[in-house]
Each structure stands twice: as C-alpha cells, then as structure tokens.
Amino acid sequence: MTTRPGFWLRLISLGIREEMDFGLRKKFHVLNSVALVITLFSAILATVNYLQRNHHLLPYNVTMTVTGAAGLWLLSRGLWRPALVGLAVIGMTVSALQAWLTRNGLEVNFLCFGLLMIFLMDSGFWRFCWVFLGGIGYVVILGAHFEFFRNAGVSQGRYITNVVIGVATLFVYCEVFRRVSDDYRALVERKNRDLDRANEAKETLFALVSHDLRGPVIRLKESVDHLVAGRLTPERFESIQGILRDDIHRLHASMESILRWASSQMAFHEIRLERVALAPAVDETLALFAAVAREKGIAVRNGVAPGIAVRADAGRLQAVLRNLVSNALKFTAPGGTVSIGAQSGVGAGETRCWEIAVADTGLGNGVDRAGFASGAATVRRILENGEGAAAHWGSGGDGTGERGFGLGLRLCRDFLLAQGGSLRAEEGSAGGTVLVVTLPEG
Predict the structure, then answer these.
(1) Which of 82, 106, 130 delimits the end of a domain?
(2) CA-CA distance, 86 to 117, in Å (whole number)?
(3) What is the pLDDT of residues 376-420, one digit of tens each?
(4) What is the pTM assigned to this prediction?
(5) Counted domains in the chain
(6) How far apart are CA 237 and CA 26, in angstroms?
(7) Domain presence at residue 59
(8) The domain spanning residue 394 has which CATH number?
C-alpha cells in the first residue's frame, strides 16, 4: 500500500512531473521551498508592520509576498527558470532598498540569493555573474553603513577586505560543493542506468533460454526416455534421427547465439568498425549453408555487385548474415529461393548507406513463420516488442518444427544498432519476407 505524501511535501512538489530526473526535481523542491518561505514570512511581516503602524515597510512586504506567490504559480506550470530569475531579481532589489534605506540588516539576503543561484543555475557563466552581483551588493551596503560596525583599531579598508575574503571563500566553497555533488549524482545515475540495463539483459536472457532452448531439450529428453525404456525400435529411431540431429544443431546454434548476445550486452567485445567488402562476405556466408540448401532443394543467390563495401564490424556482420540466411532457409519451402541483394539508400542523419536485402519465397500456401497471414508483420512485432512477441512463436508452418527465430532477430537487431545500422522487415514480392539490413557506406 502506497502512502500519500503530506500537505507540505505536496506543496513543495508543485510542477514536478513523473518523467523528471533527480536534478530537475531537486530544483523544483528547492525553489518551491524558497517561494513558500518568502510568501509566508512576507505576509506575516506585512501583518505585523501594519499592526505596529510601520507603514513605510508595507510596500516591501507586499512586493515580496506577491513575488513568492507568483513564483509558486510559475513553478506549478513547470516554468522553473522564470521563477528562479524572478525570485532572485526582485528579492535582491527589495533587500537592497530596505538595507540601504532602513539599515535593517537585509543585505545578508544578497548572500542567500547568490547561494541559491550557485545550486540552481546550470550555466557557470551566469552563476559567476549572479554571485559577483550579490557579493558586490553585500560589500557596498556594508561599506556605506560602516559606522554601525566600527570596532576600535580596525580601519574601514581592512574591514571591507575581510568581508570580501569571507564572502569569496563562502561562494567558492559552495561552488566546489555543487560540482562535487553533481559529479556524484551523475555517477549514481550512470550506475542506476547500468543496473537497469543489466536487469533488463538478465530478464531477456532468461526469456531467451526458456523459449529457444526448452523445445529441443524436451524433445531430446523424450526420445532418450523412450530409447531407455525400450519403446523406441531401431526402425523408429532411424526415422527420427534426422530430427534429433537437427534439434541438437539448433540447440548448439541457440546456445552460441545466446552467448554472443550476452557477451555483447556485457561489452566483452569491442566493436571495430572497418571497411568490409560485402560480396565476399555474402559468398562466405552462403558457402556455410550450401549443404543445407541442397538438402532442402532451395536455391541461394548472391545478387550483391562487386565493389560494394560497408562500414561495419566484420565479425558481427558475419553473425548477422548467418542468422538471417539460416532463418530464411528454415522458413522457405523446398523448391523455393533465398537471395541477397544490395542497393544504395539514405540512413539516419541523411548519411549514405547500403540496404542489404535477404529475401525468401516463404513456406507457400499463404503460411508464414508463425502461421499468421503476414510474415513481415510477425517479424516487425518481434523487432518492436522483443520477447513478448516471440513468446507466441510456434513451429514452422511446414511442420518442420523450426524454432529460435526470435532470438536470431533480436541478436541481429542489437548487433546492427551497435554498428550504426538497423533492421526492418518488408513483404516479399514472391509471397515471402524480406529482411533489410542498413549499414553505412564503407
């Protein structure tokens, strides 16, 4: 059960939004507190001065009361900078007039508003300007009223010098404290972000393991149980040994993909961007799957023109191509085609790039990877929603039981984003799906 914040906490939280970071929340809390104190105390002083017939002080009190209330109103609208400047300018002006004309000691407010600026102003230049103005105002008023503070044997020059040194030391100390505090706050926020990423990676890793490894392991366990119990005849075993072999290969590939993904999340491998010739990289990838393609009766084609190069990490580019070609072969019916081509395009920031398209002709009969009407739509759900969409991923529509596609896609997406690229899905003209990899020109 959540406890509702008290009245005063709600009052000094005016204008704070849920999406604000710690630093901005601190500014609002401090400014709300200052504006609230100014409003209440000025209103009390106005009442006291009215009752005591000190009518010459009422304009100052009323001005500060209105200023504090206006500051609270601005803060409630999220306008913290106008509120800060208004409180400081009007507060210092009113304090200067009162201190000069009535000699009531309010010159100390110059120091208070200067300190307020140190902790709330983002610009170092403007912090210095406000501190300089506050310090000069404080020293000038003290100098004008020196006769009230004269001590035997202390000259006015020596007195002013001591005051200047003290004020400067105070402001320097506060500035150093602010910077150290900001450094520690930035460090804590960075650690919190790292912790959030680590927790997200851990949850994703658990989801990937449970989704992509569970199926093959269960089938292997059931087969071994039947074999040990004597319920699996040699003839029956011979008929399923190909399926078991494929399950073992998929299990190994999934484990390797998970390890690569986990390593990338923990920054074990540094990304080394270089100029990579695309056509040879595609040839190397297709050579790895030549036997699988022949066994399934699928034609593979490299349509990348010689001379095309991208700026990428060679190892991660190969991992992306292997994943995409492997999945295209998984979800292409016998007699189909898997092709890779490239065309020039424009990437993020209007930079020139190459769009590498891995296209397949699908499983036929309007069936896609997940049994939905549109393979590209399913792929987009996985890329956008992560494991949430992949949790609904079933067997291949051809009954082969192909699995693990969601893991491969997310791995490719993460690798490409780390290299300044992207991955998207489009509808194929032959009824299949086209996965488009975008990478900067080399």
Answers:
(1) 106
(2) 12
(3) 666 776 666 654 333 333 334 333 434 445 666 777 887 888 888
(4) 0.46
(5) 2
(6) 69
(7) yes
(8) 3.30.565.10
